[in-house]
Amino acid sequence: MFVVYSKKGCPFCEKFKQVLEIEGLPNLILELDIDFTYKEFYDMFGNGTTFPQVIMDDIPLGGCQESLRYMQKNNICCEIL
Predict the structure, then answer these.
(1) In a 3-state reduction of DSSP, which class is residue 9?
(2) Which pLDDT does position 71 carry in this prediction?
(3) What is the DSSP string of 17-63?
(4) Do residues 8 and 47 touch, judged by C-beta distance below 8 A?
(5) CA distance 44 to 66
(6) pTM of the model
(7) Residue 49, class by beta-carbon neighbours within 10 Å (0-12 exposed, 13-18 middle, 19+ buried)?
(8) What is the per-residue pLDDT across 21-70, written as a single tens digit (0 to 9) for each?
(9) Would you say 54 and 4 are in contact if contact means Cβ atoms under 8 Å apart?
(10) Structural domain of residue 9, as residue ranges?
(11) How many domains does the chain have?
């Protein structure tokens, strides 16, 4: 299960959500100001952290690019985007 901490209007958040949808991977999308605050986000991931932040089965993968690299390296998704 992928948990994605995202915010409205973030192109990297949208890109990652598209990959999850295309690949049919189970996910939970959490949205800033609906499911969490900036303070909660920075408390969890550190000040200055960018969106999205992705956690897979309790393993923090990082942002969009880091998460996609991890997924491709571990054959979780194909070469997309």
Answers:
(1) coil
(2) 94
(3) HHHHHHHT--EEEEEBTTTB-HHHHHHHH-TTPPSPEEEETTEEEES
(4) no
(5) 18
(6) 0.92
(7) middle
(8) 999 999 999 999 999 999 999 999 999 999 999 999 999 999 999 999 99
(9) yes
(10) 2-73
(11) 1
